[in-house]
Structure prediction request, 192 residues.
Amino acid sequence: MLLVPSNAWTVPNLLTYLRLLSVPVFVLLHLGGRPGWALVVFLAAALTDSLDGLLARVLHQQTRLGAFLDPLADKLLMGAALIVLFVEHEAPLWMIALVAFRDGSMAVGAVVVKRKGLGIPASPSRVGKYATFALTCFLVLGLFDETFTDSPLLHAWLLVAGYFTGLCVAISTAQYFLRWGYLWVAPARRVP
Prediction:
């Protein structure tokens, strides 16, 4: 019998579940030749990302499950959109590599730090928030460019957004290692 925590069905968690479910729907719509509908699903899912965090604070429904699932849903949605745009020649390979390195480093770092019994830094830095916002803007522009392919101005904005996003992701990655990299090699906490 599967045990579900009593706080698994909060309003913010429900929005996160919807965002998780939107990832395969987004991919299937895009691969099925419906980029406009894929864009609508992506925008709706991105909106729930802002909304679930706000509701968690306002309704005092912050949970450990939500703290785990919310960033996971974000990474899956952003990663799926980035890969779809790469396949459609809208996103460069270097951006996928940079985002994958940052997210992979953070995931490995979280596991290493947790196994050592140390506290995992949970709050994102300001630069990290800028990087996430820039990546979201890049993805939305890329999806718009994919949907409305006859706009050279939109394509130019996509290029500018891509380089700005890459810069933000690179700076946030460097900042992560400067602020928290020492935890990778710090000694484990002794259990009394």
